[in-house]
Design goal:
Elements: H1 2-17, H2 23-34, H3 45-51, E1 57-61, E2 64-70, E3 75-84, E4 87-97, H4 101-116, E5 120-126, E6 129-134, E7 139-144, E8 152-159
């Protein structure tokens, strides 16, 4: 069953990437999906540190982790994790592009990916904020595209409890 899931995920990623124009966009989109940020909510700090690249850790506190990834194509991703006694309650991704046209494209592809997740059923678009809530209302995903024309998007995934 697990193999079937990963096979389907790989097919989904490949099909989704057909609509992405540049190699850089495909790489970033694949990275966002492979990291499976949706499942990191309620994970322990130790579990998250195992999945991240330790050399990219730029800041750490008892209830906070921040990683920075810079691609050779001038894309920067800042990943932040906030923790409480239950584990990770918020994941933040700030993505900056030198090529500003790519930001809107990736935001649209990420929207398509979340729309295809069966567990996220409640979607709202409010000005430049896209918001999904999952079926049991335990998680919310927000994509802030207000600064996409400047090459910046912000993705926030958080627990609602």
């Amino acid at each position: 069953m697990k193999k079937l899931f990963f096979l389907m995920l790989t097919v989904l990623i490949n099909l989704s990437c057909e609509n992405i124009d540049s190699k850089e966009e495909k790489m970033l989109y694949n990275y966002l999906i492979e990291q499976d940020y949706l499942s990191k909510i309620n994970s322990s700090k130790k579990q998250i540190k195992k999945k991240e690249v330790s050399g990219n850790l730029v800041s750490e506190d008892d209830d906070f982790l921040k990683y920075t990834y810079v691609s050779n194509t001038n894309i920067t991703i800042n990943s932040t994790y906030l923790f409480d006694e239950k584990g990770c309650f918020e994941v933040g991704l700030d993505i900056d592009y030198e090529n500003v046209g790519e930001a809107s494209s990736i935001a649209n592809q990420f929207k398509q990916y979340i729309d295809e997740q069966k567990s996220f059923v409640d979607f709202k678009e409010d000005n430049f904020l896209l918001r999904w809530i999952n079926q049991d209302k335990s998680r919310t995903v927000e994509v802030d595209i207000a600064n996409a024309s400047s090459g910046k998007i912000a993705i926030t995934i958080f627990a609602n409890e």
